């Protein structure tokens, strides 16, 4: 038994108190040196900044979370569509009722998410700037990171106005109280984006290879800048920037099939300038399960996008006039024929074919979950219409899908240019050319000539609403045009179709749950989350909240 | 009297006396006159006096003569014969005068042969019990089957005693067959309790510990022993937030929640090694010890601050091989379910809600009629989803077989068992097999070698594409008239729920646990009292999981009323995974124990090294073309493949010491502690010292109590103070580093996924463990020879260096998480006490009862919170218990538009009469977050208590445990609070809503979609989590041994039991242990179950 004695005493000795006995190398972690010394690794870091891109206008920008309440598209926060049969989703509960404030949970994550992405950009820019990488690599990385940083700032500015511009990675140990920044003015922020986009565009490529589709280009930087200038009312700048894209020689043009712009098979076609990339099973998106009609030939969905009658009424007939303008082609017994081709490509209406089945929204069809639900409280439709645009009919709802979200496309550039140019210097032929190009694709006649600046403004605005429907621009248009208070003072409308004597009878009614409360004294900007102000007393709240 | 008289053999005496009686013809002594005077003295003494007075000598059989009987007599010159008659007649004794002045005493009593069996309260035989004849020298011990046989006088009194049990006296009164039930004596002074790295005599322990015997819980119909502890031992607070098989393990907090960190549960130790206890079979458990104060936990260093639960498993004892068999079968059903409205009432109520909202009613009278008369169920369904989907008779069963025995040299114990628990649907179930064997070998007189092997196999099965929680989500949400109905009248499913439960494949998880341990203990003869021990443990846990998902089919009616199937379009997929954790522990012990006169010393030193290695990997394929659930049968497209894998290692080193000293078992002192090191932290920050000291004073050993208060059997005052640690956070927070992940895709229509690198939170190089300083003052006692025992403790703890996330101090724009810092401080204090009493009556009735109570309340002393809550005394987190619930204070309803107009501005949504009104606490005339205040205590209860009652009579036994909790609350949200939330169904209670005629309603104005105003977190929806439960009730009957003995069965007991039979709480439609998750506050959680069982125990 002496052996045991030795063993135990040896154990006491062996188990010394040396730190090294507790050394464990963490598996799956990389150090600073490994990351920043290698262009390949910095490239991986850059990949992750792209991964922080917001899910895009097809989803709400407010949550960035794939949860039960997200994927309520931004147009549901406008007069283009209203949320579907589900209560409890963001647009209805948090927007339509006008009761949102600094503590409304769904508006809380956005601020932090954007600044997280901005830090990544700052960190990369700092390290790459001082690196010994070759010049081309440095320029490529820096220009992409600066474009992406400007993109994230614009996502904040669209909602909040001026925000703190932070261009270095903060470190509490060395920066002290300097980590607390006040808001810059909206003007300073706009100028920042103009400068960043201009400088990034210098080094960004005009086009990228097919394998790199999704990376930033000169066109993307200009599109970002041009849209920001438009939103800020910097008309001359906006016209110049958007014209630059039109003349860039990057091969941008309208894609012939309006609906097909958004299909998976046509991704990164010549019309697309910048998009957020998804891929089934790899980086999937889920909007099809939310946006499709409640029941389609291949499955069921939440039916969460119900286009309004007001949007439908904005579509011209093939004679270039709307119903309100007394189009001769309008047939009250057959209101959906002879329309702008973009209507049928954007909206599923009663009797239209979708996914190899006919969708009825009329009342009186047995066992029909897609029909209009007049009180707007049941499990069916709210307006008598469903969204078609952006949805790829080959994607089965609730099956992993990967349709890209288009952020800017050439069609929008034409609209941006037209609007900016008209505001800056009044009507001219280049404006007509831009708008008529879009109208031609829609099967419409050219705009009447000789319009005044104000008349042209109205036509451009209608064109923009129709062309960009459901692409997440409408809310910001209503805001910057300062017409939200007027638009939202009216109830949103629905179409009730009943069969009388075997014939459908069409009746426009107020949509159940389709009233948006809007307080012009504050709702032109969103509230800054309470937690942001609580943790940084230098940040001031937007007026009225 | 001569000694030999008392010791003569019975046979000899008998023969002798018979002869004497026959020949007793001499009367010369009978008339002799004597004078005596004695009062209340023993008969033996009285006979001595008579011998002295008469010059005669008595002769008798000591077994038959009650020598200790007290007698009194006064005689003055009376005849000896008359004196003897007067004294002896009442004692049923006769006398005969013999030659040579010998007087023989004989009893009228006969001698009988008594046979008997001694059992415990569960009906199990007790070997080694001492059976002694009162007032006589005769005694024996029971055999391995608990049996004994004795020849005694038919009026003898038997004293039956065994260590750990209360002694009993039984008056034979002519009986010759006995069944004796001994009551356990938990607080017996000689009881040895398991403490950290050793054992101690309960009487000389200076630490606060609670103990529980394995036999008290081994027949409870619970899958995990965690669920058996609440209400049984003081100082343990428990909360079981789910009823899901395999996921229903109660969270246990020793003395409450002491830290803000996630590592707030007690350390669990099985047979000296840190191990999980939840998968142990209760049948293998000998005892459970809960270490509560600093003195008790000091040996566990940085792992002990949240308390320690020590489980000791059963081992073999000397004796013949004994076999035991236990089995029970039971059914489970939810403790409480809301009473949901049927379609007709749902539709009518929704119509009323629509009218309130100013919109047209949804359902016409004709439609309502259809819902009422069920004439067209395919178009107007009416399904009670809960009743139609949930199995209200879900089976549960257990079988267990044990063998044990051995000799002085070698002893063994083995046990094999199976437990099966079905879930609320039969595709969800949990099966566990337990196997345990241990062998103790006395290799030499001074060497003990022990080898332990334990294995468990746990299998949890779930459907492929759904889970228990999501099934409950569906059945508690879907309205009875939902169009995609549960099933049509012809049985076809309209909704994916039933197909997902029964036809969506499977998700099977197997976990194997192997616990092995070898220990060698060597006494060192050259130093008396010194011993060495080495322990090596190798524990391996490996788990596999396999999930096979296949698409399901649902049906819908088309416009022509034909059933059209829709089959899910995702092809089958399979994912398989494997994970393994190996923990090795090596311990070296030096123990010393010796008495020097009245000075008793024991000392312990242990060195311990632990290492853990975890590995996992997984693989999956999607797009299966053929339904063969094997990985290699899947799609061969590499894009359909996926895999994952990781590994990690952990290390810990510790040095334990404990020195105990007592003087004459009266004054006690103990010093213990540990020097501990852990790999979590930066070099130089890895080791720390955690010492404790404790003192005890046994007042009952002092003469002022010993002499004056004889009924005080034991009384001890004790106190302890010490420092212990708690590992918190996660490893490597001191390192600045990055992780690799699957990131973005580039490439448009032909996408390629690229890797990404993300920055980990900013490091904290100074990070270290939490420190707990604990004080405990306790008193324990035993009265009336152990009939009544009590123990009470007051404790106070200050936990500092708690890891807190300092994000509140940084602007949101900082853009990166920061590692935790050791900045939080929390105080936790409370009391725990227990009282137990037991008594066996001479008619065979045995009673025991107990009450235990645990109260722990923490207070955050320092935490990081932002100015908006800190500066508002109503909302301040600092100074309040962790998890205190905040919200608006509801002050009834707005009864009229005028009231709304006059009230402070409340802008959650447009208001109507009947909406909830909130208090404007800061008086700024508007309701915003600054008006929030405390609306309830934390969800985890601050008080847990339990009453036990047991009685045993003529073969019947009845045991019950009432268990309760108090100082707990939870917030109901979404469906659980507001009717028609997101189209969900509603329950009967929600019909009591506000109308102008029902202004005092339980719910606000009803709307087709609840307003934001009624969804605000407020006192309105805050419900008390207090409850009292009949947690366990058990009635058993042991078949008399006379009946079964012939069948070679030693004992045979049948019983019926139930778990959670009755629950009393203010919540009538939900179980009060609702939990705190988002799903549970919506009442979408897996309901707790009540269980009814029937079982049999037998020993052979």
Question: Can you give a write-up of this model?
Answer:
The complex is a heterodimer of chains A (545) and B (1100). With 545 residues, chain A is mainly alpha-helical. Chain A has helices spanning 2-14, 32-36, 39-51, 90-96, 109-129, 135-160, 172-175, 186-203, 218-231, 235-246, 287-291, 309-314, 341-346, 410-425, 429-441, 453-467, 474-480, 484-487, 530-535, and strands at 81-83, 272-276, 295-296, 299-300, 305-307, 347-348, 352-354, 357-359, 386-387, 405-409, 493-500, 503-510. In chain A, strand 7 and strand 8 (357-359) form a beta hairpin. In chain A, helix 3 (39-51) runs parallel beside helix 6, helix 5 (109-129) runs antiparallel to helix 6 (135-160) and helix 10 packs antiparallel against helix 14 (410-425). Helices cover 11% and strands 47% of the residues of chain B. In chain B, the strands form 14 sheets. Chain B has a 22-stranded antiparallel β-barrel. In chain B, strands 15-20-21-18-19 form a 5-stranded mixed beta sheet, with no helix packed on it. In chain B, strands 8-7-10-11 form a 4-stranded antiparallel beta sheet, with no helix packed on it. The radius of gyration of chain B is 37 Å and the shape is globular. Chains A and B meet through helix 1, helix 2, helix 3, helix 5 and strand 4 of A and helix 6, strand 28, strand 31, strand 32 and strand 33 of B.
Strand and helix layout:
The complex is a heterodimer of chains A (545) and B (1100).
Chain A: H1 2-14, H2 32-36, H3 39-51, E1 81-83, H4 90-96, H5 109-129, H6 135-160, H7 172-175, H8 186-203, H9 218-231, H10 235-246, E2 272-276, H11 287-291, E3 295-296, E4 299-300, E5 305-307, H12 309-314, H13 341-346, E6 347-348, E7 352-354, E8 357-359, E9 386-387, E10 405-409, H14 410-425, H15 429-441, H16 453-467, H17 474-480, H18 484-487, E11 493-500, E12 503-510, H19 530-535
Antiparallel strand pairs in A: 1-5, 2-10, 3-4, 6-9, 7-8, 11-12
Chain B: H1 3-7, H2 10-22, E1 33-42, H3 43-54, E2 57-59, E3 70-79, H4 80-88, E4 93-98, E5 102-107, E6 111-119, E7 130-133, E8 139-141, E9 147-153, E10 157-161, E11 168-171, E12 177-181, E13 192-195, E14 198-201, E15 209-213, E16 236-239, E17 251-254, E18 267-270, E19 273-274, E20 285-291, H5 294-297, E21 308-313, E22 319-334, H6 343-357, H7 365-373, H8 385-389, E23 394-406, E24 410-422, E25 429-444, E26 447-463, H9 468-477, H10 497-502, E27 505-523, E28 530-549, E29 553-557, E30 563-567, E31 573-596, E32 599-621, E33 641-663, E34 667-678, E35 687-698, H11 703-706, E36 712-726, E37 738-746, E38 752-759, E39 770-783, E40 788-804, E41 821-840, E42 846-862, H12 867-870, E43 885-887, E44 890-893, H13 897-902, E45 905-906, E46 916-918, E47 926-927, E48 933-936, E49 943-953, E50 956-966, E51 969-971, H14 974-977, H15 1012-1015, E52 1022-1024, E53 1027-1038, H16 1041-1044, E54 1051-1065, H17 1078-1081, E55 1089-1099
Parallel strand pairs in B: 2-5, 6-12, 18-21, 45-47
Antiparallel strand pairs in B: 1-3, 4-5, 6-9, 7-8, 7-10, 10-11, 13-14, 15-20, 16-17, 18-19, 20-21, 22-23, 22-55, 23-24, 24-25, 25-26, 26-27, 27-28, 28-31, 29-30, 31-32, 32-33, 33-34, 34-35, 35-36, 36-39, 37-38, 39-40, 40-41, 41-42, 42-49, 43-48, 44-46, 49-50, 50-53, 51-52, 53-54, 54-55
Helix pairs in contact in B: 6-7
